[in-house]
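Risk mitigation, structural track. In case the binding assays with ribose-5-phosphate fail to produce interpretable data, a predicted complex structure has been prepared as a fallback.
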Amino acid sequence: MTNLSAQTILLPFPGNTVAGVALGNQLGVSPQRLELHAFPDGETLVRLPNELTGRNVLLLCSLDHLDSKLLPLLFAADAAREQGARQVGLVAPYLGYMRQDSRFHSGEAVSAHTVAAVLDRHVDFLVTVDPHLHRIHSLSELYRIPTRTVSAMPAIVDWLRHEVRQPLLIGPDRESAQWVAAAAAELDAPYLVLDKIRHGDNAVEIVMPELAGWIGHTPVLLDDILSTAQTMITAVRQLKQHGLPDPVCVAVHPILVGDALSGLLAAGAARVVSCNTIAQPSNAIDVMPLMAAAVKTLCH
Ligand code: R5P
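Fallback model:
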């Protein structure tokens, strides 16, 4: 293992402490404390450790709920540079706002562009896991800084290989086809991609094909993001009407807003498992070794 400890300062943001330990172990770096103080008026004071001169500073911050995280992140990046950091890298296991990648209706902001333009100006590189690339095909379309897109699929495939007998992989919508096809090829397993129509934030409709040929298989719903979980809840409910075992639900990024996790289990999921890109009780798949390998390619 390359030991970066002498040159590198790893600063996990609040909510990223567990990931910080896991990533730090992989990098041979002990996470240090980043202090955030919330003033009564809602403004935030960011304080970094001393002695950043000449060091690589890694800001570890998963960018779910980004509206409240973005300014403190920019403050930290600028402060690190002002205090002599050689490089300021952003390690964002989840990169938010990538679903707002187009002006779907007149007047709407294309937020993926704005977020990228801001981050691009404040950090020297970005490492993330499976960003929601759909209408944007690569992060290089958005960023001028070096970026690394880590695929969680090797870790997910490894988990499925050990935990699920005779899987039938199912992508709940067209956008999930890329992940489901990749995992199915590695597992030499069959897969299906469903058609989803979204009617609103909490209302989706899914068209389920005939499944009689798959009796005996374990359905595995695989998607990049679990947010409200309505996509998977709808798919689980329909799958249960087809005589297959209760589905296993796997997601790369468990945003899991509100009671999404309990709702998905109540709908009939046998298990809900996720990668540790966002701290959640469903996390069972460790992507930090993959992230660490990508970080090492960018640290001078
Ligand atoms: C969208 O295309 C994504 O791949 C997910 O399917 C979606 O974000 C899931 O959202 P929710 O859990 O709110 O249904």
